Amino acid sequence: MSYDVTIIGGGIVGLATAMHLLEQRPGLRLCLVEKEAHLAAHQTGNNSGVIHSGLYYRPGSLKARNCVRGYQLLLDFLRRHDIPHEICGKVVVATRESELGPLEELHRRGTANGLEGLRWLSPEEIREIEPHCAGIRGLYVPQTGIVDYRTVAETYGREIQRLGGEIHLDEEARGIRQSTDAVEVVTTRATRRSRLLVTCAGLHSDRLARHTHPRLDIRITPFRGEYYVLRPEARGLVRNLIYPVPDPAFPFLGVHFTRMIGGAVECGPNAVFAFAREGYRKTDFSFRDTWDALAWPGFRKVARKYWKTGLGEFHRSFSKAAFVKALQRLIPEIQEEHLLPGGAGIRAQACGIDGRLLDDFHIIEDGNVVHVCNAPSPAATASLAIGETIARTVASALAPSRQQHVLS
Prior knowledge:
Blueprint: E1 2-8, H1 12-24, E2 30-33, E3 50-51, H2 62-80, E4 85-86, E5 90-94, H3 100-112, E6 119-121, H4 123-129, E7 137-141, E8 145-147, H5 149-162, E9 166-168, E10 173-178, E11 183-187, E12 191-199, H6 205-209, E13 218-230, E14 241-244, E15 256-259, E16 265-268, E17 272-273, H7 287-294, H8 297-305, H9 307-318, H10 320-328, E18 339-352, E19 362-366, E20 369-374, H11 383-397, E21 405-407
Parallel strand pairs: 1-2, 1-12, 2-9, 5-14, 12-20
Antiparallel strand pairs: 3-8, 4-8, 5-7, 6-7, 10-11, 11-12, 13-16, 13-17, 13-18, 14-15, 15-16, 19-20, 19-21
Helix pairs in contact: 1-5, 1-11, 2-11, 9-10
């Protein structure tokens, strides 16, 4: 069967894109293929469930624009579909003098991105919000919230089917054949032909993109984020969300405390190089994935520059005491006995050939194919806004005489 649009990837970005296209274009023939047996199997289903406000992102960037708009679109969707969520707010805490400048920059960015209600906190005011938290200065961000993104993604999926779209699970894309008037996706079950293809493959986005864009100048480097959870009797140490001031050199937010929508409290994540793109356990190893990373010139540049930081992350991965020490910067009362092993997620971090760790969305339009090559956090929060962006790209890509273009 032929379609108007095929989407590869059953994570929250692919699902949001499909849903938005079907809402805006009734009668559109659309199919979504996902290699796993269920939706939201990787990044979407293994994150900490934070609804981000837009605090961290460079004003004017795709991340900033899509997060701020996506935040409101997401809240509207959650309310319409009665999905449990809570806008509980968070505190970002400086524990050292060297962090005061970066904290000021966060306030500047948040203000420029339109956040309202940002409030500076003294040490005493920090403890009024989070009684067990220590810091020399804090920033209160009232617009941050929590939700279960797997539930959100599953609701997107039901909406896609209600609107007439097809979802094919347990079907892996193996090849892409592109011509001027059609695209064929060869999967483990069928060959699916459509006028336009959108790839939202997360951890494998670069591999799919290279089918039509062989000179792609980024590669996905997988970083595993490992969590602990607080024992039930220790959950009172955290009321809502407590974050450190992030290192501006890295696109990671540092280990933090997150109350989950079900009541549990996660501690983490770290950010350790994973030896497999789907390597959720420390012992997981893929020769292909490891070689792809180590052979990439950009990753080698990152490793040479930040090897000490990388060793520190590995140390925290294998030493519970080191992990606890990082957490104690925010909550000194935390002890090893308060923590139980939690889950892990893999971040699909795009790395440029020049050694840059891409910190913004990166979308390539290549004729009748659109590749979402980098969709880092806050992609879940921003999913509906990203879906709008890609839908506009779809309308443009279906027009004749389309040229290659990159959004980044």
